[in-house]
Amino acid sequence: MIANVDIVIACLYILFILIVGLWAGISHKRRSKAAAADEYFLAGKSLRWPAIGLALFATNISTVHLVSLAQSGFDSGLLNGNFEWMSAFTLILLALFFVPFYIKSGVATLPDFLEKRYNRSCRDWLTVISIFSAIIIHIAFSMLAGGIVLKTLFGVSMYTSVIIISLITAVYTIIGGLKAVVVTESIQTIVLVTGAVIISYAAFQKIGGWEPMVQVLQQEGGMEKLSLLRPHGDSSGMPWYAIFLGYPVLGIWYWCADQTIVQRVLGAKDVNHARVGSLFCGFIKILPVFIFVLPGLIAYALTQSGQLDVSSLQTVDANGNTVVQSKGIYTLMITQLLPSGLIGVLVAALLSGLMSQVAGALNSVSTMVSYDVYQRYKPGTTDKKLVQVGKIAAGVALVFSLLLLPLLNKYESIFIGLNDIIAHIAPPITCVFLLGVFWSKASAAAAKHTLWWGSLLGAIVFAVNKLVPGSLLAQVPFMMMAFYLFCVCVIMQVVLSYVFPVQHTAESKNLFWTKLSEPFRMKAWSGPGNYKLLTVLLLMVMTVLYYMFK
């Protein structure tokens, strides 16, 4: 339980975000002359690079990350930091190769882009997958992580606390649209990072610095916890080659082809703002390893040295052994390492993660339902009606997400559960987007069948893994499973593209690169805002970091 002052700080923060969100959305609509639907869903395409970068980061980083990355740091060290640092490379792909087509085609949704590159069937299928993935991955899992933390801190029912916070978030999201989401996400990013830095500093001070932590790891035989790249046969199931083969399948879907994330880019003022905003997010993604994952590793060292009391998290497993239920390690660090007052700031940071993720996903769901579902069957729909439909869709998505919480709570690790689902959803989508942008012969019929049968294959494999735990498929780590499914989808689309040759439309013939050098010949800003310079700099920084923590 936490002190009253911390509860007051958390409540004031929630009220502040609600007021700012409503003000940003309503005032922006009053000032703008853009069509109502364009204004509501894409902020009138007025977003600049700082807001885009911060909003991308905030939509990605949720309470799931604060809680589960600390848990993974405690359990396996820096290993899952790969999901943060590898994202920098996929953000480069987004900025260089995908953004120009997204902005040039003027699409409001990624399913819309898929229709322009392929056909209507591809759009319909991606819409369904994207809506359900937003509800499950971006909303429900965030609610679950937030609920676990709030229950531990406040002693109230997980469902009660999550429902209250989610409803408050839904109010400003549904009323204010994307502008409200982006403005509040920018604030929430600052609060979230500040809170994470505070707990990281407190943990670092408690252990006494880097060397004392390393000494504890040496004594416990846990030096491998400092490595991001593990050898073949590592108990984590994620050796170095699984990272480099499997992550791009997950990452390209998440950062380049997922509506919830990319919607911030679609609202950009122009191509350069979209590109620089994406790269800016790539630089910010360096932070999570140090402020989300590392604190969990320090918590492990503090536990081993007797400086952190984890008795409240201990339980007895099926074999009679005492084990630590590390889901609650982040909450434990907050209550044991921070004084009253600062605890309130950390609670605000956790709420920021929950609210920003839910807000972004609700807005993307409402956009897809309005543009990709309702407008298809009623093409003459007014902007006012589209906005109304989007608001209703957001409300329904919120309720459905709440109903999923008991099912998702069965995962022992939130982060592993999240990526396990993504690994079976992403392969066919990553395939059709990559081949669509880089291969002129990728045909509409081939893409359609790849999406259909690739998704079915992923669902079957996922079901077998869960229903038959001891099967051969269940023994394949999810990262490698993502790669294998992707390879099957690529073979399927390539073969089918020759069976059903491409027939380009006036639009589709302009939505793929003929040469890999083309993206580098486009007009860029001069000075430090040059996207080519930023790309090279980000690649250099990531190479150095991986060398240091290999």
Question: How would you describe what is shown here?
Answer:
With 550 residues, this protein is an all-alpha fold. Helix content is 74%, strand content 1%. It has a domain at 4-28 and 38-307 and 326-405: Sodium/glucose cotransporter. It contains 20 helices and two strands. Helix 5 (82-105) packs antiparallel against helix 12, helix 8 (158-207) crosses helix 15 (342-377) and helix 9 (210-219) crosses helix 13. It is globular and about 70 Å long. The two termini are 40 Å apart. The mean pLDDT is 85.
Properties at a glance:
550 residues, mainly alpha, Sodium/glucose cotransporter, two-stranded antiparallel ribbon, 74% helix, globular, membrane, transmembrane helix
Q: What strand order characterises the main sheet?
A: 1-2
Radius of gyration: 23 Å
Write the element-wise H/E pattern from the N-terminal end onward: HHHHHHHHHHHHHEEHHHHHHH
Specify the CATH class of the domain at 4-28 and 38-307 and 326-405: Mainly Alpha
Specify the CATH architecture of the domain at 4-28 and 38-307 and 326-405. Answer: Up-down Bundle
Largest pleated sheet: 2 strands, antiparallel
Give the N-to-C terminal Cα separation: 40 Å
Low-confidence segments, given as residue ranges, are: none
Q: What's the CATH H-level superfamily name of the domain at 4-28 and 38-307 and 326-405?
A: Sodium/glucose cotransporter
CATH topology of the domain at 4-28 and 38-307 and 326-405: Sodium/glucose cotransporter
Strand percent estimate: under 5%
Give the total of beta strands. 2
Overall pLDDT score: 85
Helix content: over 70%
Instruction: Compute the number of helices.
Output: 20
Structural classification: mainly alpha
Described by the principal axes of the CA atoms, the overall outline is: globular
